[in-house]
Design brief:
By secondary structure, this protein is of the alpha+beta class. The chain is 53% helix and 9% strand. The longest helix has 21 residues, at 152-172. Residues 29-325 form the Transglycosylase SLT domain.
Length: 340
C-alpha cells in the first residue's frame, strides 16, 4: 500500500508540475521572447511575465488528440450541428441581422446562408465562444503538444506563430493577452478566428473604429464575409452536389480537402454521376460520407473548398453547407426572404 501511495503521490506531483509549468523557462521560450522584443519591440519583462503566467492545459492536448471530425462517422457528426435548435436559432439570427447580411452579400458577394451557418457551427450564435484563456491554449500547443504529435514541427511552428499574433492583437486592441478567452485551439469570437486571421480578416463593420468579433455580431458578419472573399469565394456559384456511382471507385482519391483540379467530366468517367447538372469543365473533387445505413457520395465544387479554408475537414465543410441549406429553407417561410 505504501508503494502504491508513493506512485500516486509522484503522479500527482508530476501532473501538478506540468499544469503549472513556467513557460518562460521552456526551451523554446528564449527564441520566442527574443523575437517578440527584436521584431515587434515588446518589453522583455512583459513577454516573460505573460509566459510565466500561462498555464499548461492537459485537457487541451487531449481535445486536440481526439478531434470530432476524425472520431465520429458523418451521420453522428452531422447530428451535432444540423439540428432543429440550430436551424431555428440561425433563422432568428438572420432575421435580427437581415440588413447587415444583405449589406455583406452586396459588398462581399458571399451567400448570407453560409455566413449564418458558419457562425452557427462555430459558436451556436455566440453561445459558445470558448472558455479557455487563449494564451494557455497557444502556449500549451506551441511548447508541449508537439512532443505528442507526429507532425510536431509544423504544428509547433503554427501555434508559435499564433502566439505571436495573439500578443500583437492584444497590443493593437489595447487588451491584456491574459484576459482573452477562446477555444481549446486558440480561436476567438463569434466566428472563431485564430489570432492571425483576426488580425488579417476581421473588419470594423459598424464603423465604431474597433473590429470586435468577440461580442459584436455586426463585425462578426462582416469579418466572416471578408474571410470568404479573401479566400476565393465565387459569388452565386454552387457548393456541392450529391452523386451516384455507376462503377467501383478509387477510395484513395476520396475526401481530400484541396483545391479541385479534376472536372465533372473526369469524375463522371471515373464512375461519379452528379445529381445536379453542371458544365463538363466544372472543377470538383469526390467525397464519401458514412451515413447511418450506407455511404453517401458527393462532389465538392470550388466554393466547398473555400468553406474548407475555414476548417480543412470534409465533414466540417459539409455540416456548414447542409446547415446553410436548412436555414435558408426555414427562412423561405418569411416574405421576401428567398430572393437572394
Amino acid at each position: 500500500m505504501k508503494y502504491i501511495f508513493l506512485i500516486i503521490l509522484s503522479t500527482v506531483i508530476l501532473t501538478s508540475h506540468k499544469t503549472s509549468a513556467d513557460y518562460s523557462a521552456h526551451e523554446y521560450a528564449g527564441p520566442f521572447i527574443d523575437s517578440m522584443v527584436k521584431e515587434h519591440q515588446f518589453e522583455r519583462q512583459d513577454v516573460i511575465r505573460w509566459l510565466t503566467e500561462a498555464k499548461r492545459q492537459e485537457s487541451i492536448i487531449k481535445a486536440m488528440s481526439r478531434p470530432a471530425e476524425k472520431a465520429k462517422p458523418w451521420h453522428e457528426y452531422r447530428k451535432i450541428f444540423v439540428t432543429d435548435t440550430r436551424i431555428s436559432r440561425g433563422k432568428k439570427f438572420w432575421l435580427e441581422n437581415k440588413d447587415t447580411l444583405e449589406r455583406a452579400e452586396k459588398e462581399f458577394g458571399v451567400d448570407p446562408a453560409i455566413i449564418v451557418s458558419i457562425i452557427g457551427v462555430e459558436t451556436n450564435y455566440g453561445r459558445n465562444v470558448g472558455s479557455y484563456r487563449v494564451i494557455d491554449a497557444l502556449t500549451t500547443l506551441a511548447f508541449d503538444y508537439y512532443t505528442q504529435n507526429d507532425k510536431r514541427e509544423s504544428r509547433r511552428k503554427f501555434f508559435t506563430v499564433q502566439l505571436e499574433h495573439l500578443l500583437l492583437l492584444a497590443r493593437e486592441q489595447n487588451k491584456d493577452p491574459l484576459d482573452l478567452k477562446g477555444s481549446y485551439a486558440g480561436a476567438m469570437g463569434w466566428g472563431q478566428f485564430m489570432p492571425n486571421s483576426y488580425r488579417n480578416f476581421a473588419v470594423d463593420y459598424d464603423n465604431d473604429e474597433f473590429a470586435d468579433i468577440w461580442t459584436n455580431p455586426t463585425d462578426a458578419i462582416g469579418s466572416v464575409a471578408n474571410y470568404f472573399t479573401e479566400h476565393g469565394w465565387v459569388t452565386g456559384a454552387p457548393v456541392a452536389t450529391k452523386a451516384h456511382i455507376k462503377a467501383a471507385v478509387d477510395g484513395k482519391n476520396l475526401n481530400k480537402m484541396k483545391r479541385p483540379t479534376e472536372t465533372i467530366a473526369d469524375l463522371t468517367a471515373q464512375g461519379f454521376v452528379p445529381v445536379d447538372r453542371f458544365p463538363a469543365d466544372t472543377a470538383a473533387f469526390p467525397m464519401r460520407l458514412k451515413a447511418k445505413y450506407n455511404d453517401e457520395y458527393w462532389l465538392g465544387l470550388h466554393n466547398f473548398y473555400v468553406i474548407g479554408r475555414y476548417n480543412p475537414r470534409v465533414k466540417y465543410a459539409m455540416a456548414v453547407f447542409q446547415l446553410s441549406q436548412q436555414i435558408r429553407h426555414s427562412m423561405c417561410s418569411e416574405p421576401e426572404s428567398c430572393e437572394s
